[in-house]
Amino acid sequence: MCLEGLIGLLELNCFTVEVSVGNHGEGGSDHGGWSRWSCHNQDEQSASQCSGSNRGGKAKVIEESTLARVIFIFLAGLKEKYDEAMRRNDVKAIVVTGNGGRFSGGFDINVLQEVQQTAGNLSHLGRVSVDLMINTIEDAKKPSVAAIQGLALGGGLELAMSCHARISTPKAQLGLPELQLGIIPGFGGTQRLPRLVGLQKAVEIMLLSKSIMSEEGSKLGLIDAVVSPGELMTTARMWALDIAERRRPWIISLKRTDKLESLGEAREILKFARAQAKKTAPNLPHPQLCLDVIEEGIVAGGLAGVLKEEKGFNDIILSETAKGLVHFFFSQRATTKVPGVTDLGLKPRQIKKVAVLGGGLMGSGIATSLVLSNIPVVLKEVNAGFLQQGINRISANLKSRVKKGSMTQEKFEKTMSLITGAVDYAEFRNVDMVIEAVIEKISLKQEIFSDLEKICPAHCILATNTSTIDLNLIGAKTHVQDRIVGAHFFSPAHVMPLLEIVRTEKTSPQIIVDLINVGKNIKKVPIVVGNCTGFAVNRMFFPYTQSAHMLAVLGVDIYRIDKVITSFGMPMGPFRLQDLVGYEVSIEVGKQFVTAFGDRTFKTPLTELMIENKRAGEKNGKGYYIYDEKRRASPAPEVKEIIEQARKNSKIMPDGKPIVVTDREILEMIFFPVVNETCRVLDEGIAIKASDLDVSSVLGMGFPAYRGGIIFWGDSIGAGHIYSSLKKWSESYGGLFKPSAYLEERAARGIPLSAPVAARNFGSRL
């Protein structure tokens, strides 16, 4: 019997159930004695069609909503075929496998998002863990064997674990990654995995969303045998028959206890895991829920654990955390869809060699990203000494991987061989792309791009890594502005996952398509944005630091500010961040924003006072914090006098007294201006869609992913509250808080900030 296409609940296009019928000999044909049935998804009709290939009669077509279709296919489809297999006397055993080289990718996240957006009720789907996994499969009077190839993740692995044995091909990926989406396994995974591999390993796999290969699964007891793809079905069939005929043990995973640690040891494992989860993810409820559900099964038995899991799964799906993470999941996958570019039918050209100008921290990091993806790099510097320093930085980046065990020495040497050093442009005559990563000096960049126009081949992409300078200025002295594009990496470039692709009105769509493909090849998330001061990420977040500085000179303690921001979920507060970035950089970048957006910037005296007092942040171990040899930060008491001087110089404290604010007000006074500036970025067409800015805020600035991104979070607060708060503060503290026209309109009309703006030409703005 074959059931193909658990569309809607499992991501596979084809899912198969085979049942043995009649007698089987050891040397029988591949399909002899096995019956196949199918259930297909009819995409055009939004219907599911189930048919039996060895039975007469017409196919049955059922048209339902997405959620109802899921329920029908999973429960009424698979369960129906299982029930029939149980009734038939000629059926002896069942093999479950996936078609197309994959077993199952798990729960269809589209359904999850649909339920969240419509505040739907998933309680009936929760019965899958009982009605299907336990009653239909695990407690059946005939055994099932899962034949796994490719991958078995999430609900797919949970289905496999409900079978009585699991046979896999080599290198199959196994895991329960649900926690990445703010939910927990919901089809019995929290109960069966500990019983198959032990509690310690199961907790690690679930809490870290860590996948393992089938070979490790075999050692742990999750997989019963690893065989070649050609042997998979034969082995699974014979294994199923051996169980049916009692030549192999009939094992019900949910009732196993031999792999579980003692109750005392189990509680210690869970106690430690809770403490670690609370430390690393203090704002997330689902890791703790997962551990609670696991413990229920350890203490009260597998069935009790399944029931608690069922309730917890249904509850957590509608949590704000899950909504945020699911939104972020889909937003990341939508960044490469660029209207007017990726819908033109253009194919990315092959980038065989890339030149990087500048071997500093950014240039060496960019070069590291490229060679890690086997793209040869020409690294150019002004002289041999600087060139060697750049190569040494790349070597250090790669050696850190060797030290961690993620790269072999042989791979290190092979990767380093992809780098060619240069102190002139001779090697640039056969490169496909150049990425300029020199200091932020307009005249220098203009000179470089004039040289590149003359030397590089006509097809070569000319990219700049500038973080703020207008691309039209950089390319002003060239005649190839259609090939000029921004490739803004974030530091450290070989670690940070975001690539901001900046286009002007003249940038060719082909160049953008090529750079998007390069970004994906080097494992970055590419975001296409328009040309303006700060582009998207830096522009959105320039009020972040400025608001914090205004609060500081208004009398709010800087360490309290940092604590409020890190408690919200940011990796570090604005003052700790400024220590990391450096004060000179902050001042130079700040000048550009004052020039571009002078009506809504706050020029702080504090940074210059810090420099005057010989403080440079992490650079010399003395900033707003004091740093030890391991870069651990602690408050610097002597900074209090500098801050007091800044407050006197600013003269903005009401009646010369510190303002009184709550932690909530601190949070809002720092992030509402960021939301406000993000609204302007959307309104001006610098970004294509709000979800791109959500991804940018998370991957570029560390905004917590579980809050969905800056605009998603703003919508959760409400445009009305953000607008009224900013309007009130602007009346007291000036233009930094002045609400944008976009925000005002959305608040007045009750429209979400994320709702699409009217179509417009994607432009370039200063």
List descriptors:
single chain, 766 residues, alpha/beta, 8-stranded mixed beta sheet, 29 helices, 21 strands, globular, disordered N terminus, disordered C terminus
Strand order of the largest sheet: 4-3-2-1-5-6-8-11
**Portion in strands:** 5-15%
Task: Characterize the biggest β-sheet.
Answer: 8 strands, mixed
Helical content stands at 40-55%
Quickly give the structural class. Answer: alpha/beta
Characterise the protein shown here.
The chain has 766 residues and is α/β, with parallel strands linked by helices. It has 29 helices and 21 strands. An 8-stranded mixed beta sheet has the order 4-3-2-1-5-6-8-11, sandwiched between helices. Strands 14-13-12-15-16-17-18-19 form an 8-stranded mixed beta sheet, sandwiched between helices. Helix 4 (155-162) packs across helix 5, helix 12 packs across helix 26 (690-701) and helix 19 (537-553) runs antiparallel to helix 25. The N and C termini lie far apart (64 Å). Mean pLDDT is 89; it is low at 1-15, 21-32, 37-69 and 762-766.
